[in-house]
Amino acid sequence: MSSWRQFKAILKKDIVMELRTKEMLTSMGLYALLVLVVYYITLSQAGADFEVRRIAAGLLWLVFIFTSLLGLNRSLVHEKDQGCLEALLISPTDRPVIFFGKAVGNLIFLLIVEALIVPLFFFIFLARPGAQAGGPVWMLALALILGSIGIAGVGTLLATMSVNTKGKDFILAVLFIPIMFPLLLAVVAGSAAVLQADPEYVRTFWQMMGLAAGYDVIMLLAAFGLYEFVLGA
User: Which residues lie below 8 Å from residue 101, measured CB to CB, with a gap of 6+?
Assistant: First the structure.
């Protein structure tokens, strides 16, 4: 079987399984919604003069980071509990193909959750009369896509590393947050530039997107090269 057919088979399996159970999307969506509720309760005490837009980018990416941790852990734990991971390892499937299949599946699920949460976030916190319009929506969408690619790629590698440990949830978070720091810094700064629409926001945005794209390329290549070793460890 060609690598492309192997990739499609792995991705189709994950998507069909999720469409049947809806466990990952439901848990990620509910978790993100609960975080928004906590945000709303907390920020309601800040007073009418407080400008949420100044911290909106950080709040939004906090939702996605913690939600992605939940989804990444569930995706590999489910494979482990059902014996699917062992079946993939004994099958004649290239290890890098397994990585790309799992990473693309995690990326799709994360993007679906983001597509649901972003409009809700804007409606709750930023849709105020007389509020600053901000930059173009496509710029924010680009930041979300670049950030999600890095989260899904690196997160898939780290989740595979931690799935066999006793404290898999804790281990994944300890590994994930420090490694993702450069990407988070870039996408939060780029998203903040778009939302605040400062005079120099276009230049700032493209500088940060360049850093995010460079991080994605380097870390995806590293994850691609290390995945076979991680599976065999």
Answer: 6, 7, 9, 10, 11, 14
